Amino acid sequence: MPIITLTTDFGHDDAFVAVMKGVILGRGRRCDIIDICHTIPPQDIGAAARTLAQAAPFFPPATIHVAVVDPGVGSRRRIICLETAHHLFLAPDNGLLTPVLAAAQRVVQVSNESLFLQPVSATFHGRDIFAPVAAALANGLALSELGPVLKTENLVTLKQRRARFVGNQLRGECLQADHFGNMATTINAADLQAFPADDQPLLIRVADRCIAGLSQTYEPTAATAIALINSNNQLEIALAHGNATRSLHLKPGMPVVVEKKRPPATPAHRGNTDKQ
Predict the structure, then answer these.
(1) What's the average model confidence in pLDDT over 57-72?
(2) In this structure, what is the dihedral angle of CA atoms 97, 101, 107, 110, given to the nearest 10 degrees?
């Protein structure tokens, strides 16, 4: 049975997602429609790209991934279908597919209007173009029937934000918070391996906090800021039993610095030594 996934910024308060599913089911043979995420921040192409890239590798071969985070809907921006060795990705040509571009075997422009729901709205291509094209692909339509082949170097891409060393400091930034308020960063586990293996703990500085060392889990008993490597191999800032993003006032783009240097010792409290 064909699998179609949906990733959008449509939310759950309106009928948009249900309408797309209705079009797919009405035009396609029986298929499984899987929701990856519909709470991408509005127009946040980068968040959509990261979310889709995190989820897609865990789906079976021949899955059709439909991603509609499309600030340019109704404009001259292209709609593309990208084929990898295992999956198809249907999305606007706005950088959303940047993380999977390196795996592309073929990319075509979706321009065959006979596949579209007519008349095509200028504001809801998810219903009128993405959904019926996904259904056609699930029915076995060849990729070549969608439109002309495109060169990958001519596609829109997002700037990849990466951590870098400045002297002995590894500098990155906050990237994206999850549902629990844990803030992922642009620093990954491989970046941290560049530090020497010794008895000095890593110091992670973000906002006004200095976190010493990496935790293995979210289990500290005290409500304190921690740093750990998450399931996507990213350095993550969390708050045990709390919401780190809200409590620490973290925002995407905020600097994160990692270094190996012992924190200054806290001066011992001295009482009044004046002679009486």
Answers:
(1) 97
(2) 10
Overall average pLDDT of the 151-162 stretch: 94
Does the pLDDT value for residue 275 go beyond 50? no
> pLDDT tens digits, residue range 109-137?
999 999 999 999 999 999 999 999 999 99
- For residue 268, pLDDT beyond 90: no
Strands 202-206 and 255-260: antiparallel
Judge residue 53's burial from the number of C-beta atoms within 10 Å of its C-beta, 0-12 exposed, 13-18 middle, 19 or more buried.
middle
176: β partners: 184
Max CA distance (Å), the chain: 98
Which residue ranges make up each domain of the chain?
3-154, 164-260
Superfamily name and number for 164-260: Bacterial fluorinating enzyme like (2.40.30.90)
Arch. (CATH architecture) of 3-154? 3-Layer(aba) Sandwich (3.40)
- pTM for this prediction: 0.87
Tokens 């959509």 label which residue? 48
